[in-house]
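Notes from the 1:1 (GR / supervisor)

We went over the backlog. Supervisor wanted to see one worked example end to end before approving the batch request, so GR pasted a single chain during the call. The sequence is below; no edits were made to it. Supervisor asked that the structure be written out right there so they could see what the output format looks like.
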Amino acid sequence: MRPASAPVPPPPDQEIEPPGVPGLSGLMTLAVGVVVLAGLYVGREVFLPVVLAILLAFVLAPFVDLMRRWHLGRVPSVIIAVLVAIGIIASIAGVIGFQLAGLASDLPRYQTTIERKIGSLREGSLGKLPNLLRDFGRRFDRAVGDQQEAGAPSSPGTSAPPAEEPKPMPVEVHQPEPTPLQVARDLLLPLLKPFATMGIVFVALVFILMQREDLRDRMIRLFGSSDLHRTTVAMDDGARRLSRYFLTQLALNATFGLVAGIGLWVIGVPSPALWGVFAALMRFVPYIGSFLAAAPPILLAAAVDPGWSMAIMAAALFVVGEPLMGQVVEPIVYGQSTGLSPFSVVISAIFWTWIWGPVGLLIATPLTLCLVVLGRHVERLEFLDVLLGDRPALTPAENLYQRMLAGDPDEALDSAEVLLKERSLTSYYDEVALRGLQLAANDATRGVLTHRQLEQVRAVVKALVQDLGGHEDIEPPPHETRDEPVASPQSEKPVIREPAVMGEMPHEDRIGAEWKAEGAVMCIAGRGPLDEAASEMLAQLLNKHGLGSRLVPHEAVSRSGIYRLDMTGVQMICISYLEIRGTPAHLRYLLRRLRRQAPKAPILVGLWPAEDAVLKSESMRAVLGADYYVSAMRDAVVQCLKVATGEEELPQTVTTGKAATEAAAGKRLPLPA
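Structure output shown during the call:
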């Protein structure tokens, strides 16, 4: 008989295939990615205006909706919103133009101040540095020349240096004077391209705002036609969150620019409105935008003020203002996260700058946010969320399994304590620990876990359960959480079930003394290599709710060992299985043996993989003969407490065979939802 702790080997006809090379689909995906990148780069003249129009549409959509709620039609609402946007942009451009003109007229005066400061620097210790470097260079050259003369032998036939050749006569080429038409062309052509781009942007913006619902339906048809309701809710929620985020970011950056402009005006830096607008625009550049915006006004302050106080105050304004805005104001307004990982923000800034130049740098963060939203709501584009989003790459269960394989109980405990701040111990075992054990059990069944890895998994789980023994199984007090701007809607997030102690949990004061005695509930491990770990979790939870429990390994209830098992004081029996497939005849025979030894004790079977066929088949459950079947630790604890407190009548005492089947079929509870 194979020991219960040994991993189940794969069938003889089943081979474990090594990881293969990418197939045709992988190569096609790579080819499509290369084509998309080439298209974005080559077609930037077309794609850039469309992308700008889409981003502006997210900003103006709430304004259009507001005017439509004021009973304005779609067309007037869109036209008014676009005209307001054009007016704001034109006003900002006008302010920038006037400020630049005034700054250009004062440049000669600033040049005198700069020359005076440079002269004072030359007269000081800084001015002596070039002379010192020159003197050091002469000495170094003299020393090298002396060494060369000492090492080179003299030869009598050394020829004299050749005579200098005559210098060629300089030739000057004069261009003809440009005609007025050429002057007009040289001045207007550089301005024509930006105006043409802005015209395309606003034309595309009008059509996007006019046909928002139609474009949304086409996206749903393209990416999520199999689940219209879910995709519609997701895309509507994503568009709403993006609009809110872009408006918030625009308001914060404009506020930063306003504060910077007012501060520079108070300090006395010329053209403060220009530098305020410049600071607001550059703040769209992640991390370094504000400091890049600080360089021109600081240099200008140094050119205006004969001393250095104005430049120092201008530098202090940005050094204090940017951390205050980025580390204090933005986390309060946005919540804990914007949905992007810091690494992806930097990479996206580099990528979009390479693709679309300076404009790509300004729109890198908003554009990457759009991609992350698509990845979180559209299954086919999930890789975008994995690559660019700030969510953990592994689920908590997968992370726990990875720590099990690495044999690292400390990090597993650290992750568990973080999760237990938001849920009860029962919820953690149901949602994380059991699912991590299922991953390990599946790998053990396939034969891909070595004996050493299996022992590491057991050791980590055992240490984790022991370390969590001091945690109470209570739900932490509810606290308000703010969803990040690009989060999935609440209906799409994993549901955290209510803990066992809330709502339907019977009160512990009604538990009889016989149920509180040690070993009142016998927790028996299934025959799988990791079933004992699941039984240990259940025994711990039962102890926390006032029931005396005892952990029994599977070998103790084998055919040869069950007669030596002490069943004194056993009020209920709970059996745990992480993996049970096909027709589990061994479970049926185990239940018969337990019925013979404890005919009055009800039996609960915990089949932790909820999709198991035993839970879905009424006839299979009737044949097995247990009294209760559950698929979650929470349901197991609740069921045991109901029996212990008398809230549920005990099933009829049965022995074996047909009587057990009838009793189990008549007294079984409905399956949990």
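Supervisor's comment: Residues 43-121+193-213 form one domain.
Batch request approved.
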